[in-house]
User: Fold this.
Amino acid sequence: MTGPACTDPRLAPPSGRGLDGAAEGGHRLRGTDSIRRMGLIERYIERLPFAATDPIVSLNEGSTPLIHAPRLSDRVGADVYLKYEGLNPTGSFKDRGMTCAVSAAVREGAEAVICASTGNTAAALAAYAARAGIRGVVLVPDGKIAAGKLAQALMHGAEVIALRGNFDEALRLVRQIADAHPIALVNSVNDFRIEGQKCAAFEIQEDLEGQLDALCIPVGNAGNITAYWKGFRELHAEDPSVSLPRMVGFQARGANPLVRGEAVAAPETVASAIRIGNPARWEEAMTAMTGSGGSVNDVTDEEILDAYRFLAREEGVFCEPASATSVAGLLKHGAGIEPGSDRQRIACVLTGHGLKDPQTAMDESTPVIPCEPSLAALEKVLIR
Assistant:
């Protein structure tokens, strides 16, 4: 199998721009907000290791909303915002890193891309490999991937291999394969993934005009917290008036190696996206938290599910269980707000959409109410 030619229109470099900033001949809406219709690399190309002539593999990822959460804000005594990454093309933050990792792989002539995954990376790899026209391969822990994520990977045409082992074993194997064969590894050990994911920090600071006190974030393989810290530091280096927020990481109690200070041999948690016992970016994540004056703590599965239901029922935001770890941690441990301090701004990263894991949603919801097709029956159900 050979890599796609750079003449493929799907891999075309960014087009020229009209006077109003919109892409000429493109499908984007025109106007002052047209920048938010760009894909991540096009929007931030001056901050990324790409040139305008490079082949870009994009699904118009990024530019996800930062949603104010009034009820959550009231509970913690701060202005809390939800960075809702579930509105990326495949429903998770992984698309940010994947547009960069796959674009770089295509630029370098890779014939295929591979990853180990608990689900979201698999879905993103499959979609971006399909977009690029190259082979996509994913290793997932057998029986440990949510149905929505598995369906995405399969539907996009990736070769899905169910490994009789956990994520850490899968990552070890794909690293060995990538070292021995012409296939690009696109897990978060790939630095292009970090480059793409750091752009979420740019978006948050743009929305909050450079003033954020703390970022609460789930920690699994630790690439995302590493990327956010890189983004915040780059902005601050350019403009010291842009705040450097405290990086506050949260892990599930059953998969909490950073909290324990040692690898977890058999990680287990309902938050499947962070069911990782030996994070690839362990040292970088700890540097982000200690260097920012932040911290790392854990929460139980029950606390994660409580936050999961709270977000859906009180804030109208449906995220996957792992995403709710950031909110569960904020509610339990706080974000380092000093007593008597001014009201602070906190962002909680919600890493994936709730439809990624439909079974957990069904398990945590009230049952469907049966009703006969008559007004009397409906009144009996509704009128109390």
Observations:
- Residues 223-238 form the longest helix (16 residues).
